């Protein structure tokens, strides 16, 4: 059970953390020019 929780909870966290920065970096870049214009 411990191995399952760690493997199932650790992998998703790594993927989410890697996807969040990507979207957060792309969101401000596209929102800044739109708001300035």
Structure report:
- The chain is an all-alpha fold and 37 residues long.
- The chain has one domain (1-28).
- Helix content is 95%, strand content 0%.
- The chain contains 1 helix and no strands.
- It is rod-shaped, with a radius of gyration of 16 Å.
- The model has no long low-confidence stretch (mean pLDDT 53).
Radius of gyration: 16 Å
Proportion of residues in extended strands: under 5%
Q: Count the domains.
A: 1
Mean pLDDT: 53
Organism: Salmo trutta (Brown trout)
Protein name: Silva-like protein
Topology summary:
Blueprint lengths: L1 H35 L1
Key attributes of the depicted protein:
single chain; mainly alpha; Silva-like protein; 0% strand; 1 helix; 37 residues; rod-shaped
What's this, in brief?
By secondary structure, this protein is an all-alpha fold.
